[in-house]
Hints:
Strand order of the largest sheet: 1-2
Largest sheet: 2 strands, antiparallel
Low-confidence stretches: none
Mean pLDDT: 92
Order of helices and strands: HHEE
Radius of gyration: 11 Å
Distance between the termini: 18 Å
Strand content: 25-35%
Number of helices: 2
Number of strands: 2
Amino acid sequence: MTLMMGYYDEQYDLNFLLRLSKPDVYRMEFQDQELVAVTRLWAK
């Protein structure tokens, strides 16, 4: 998941991955090929 997110936005890097709870669920919204929103769906 983090690799895919990082492809579209550099803020989703190894540090982001290490801070995630496991499991974690995010929804990525696109307009054409551009990432426009990321929403965390998993609330631990």
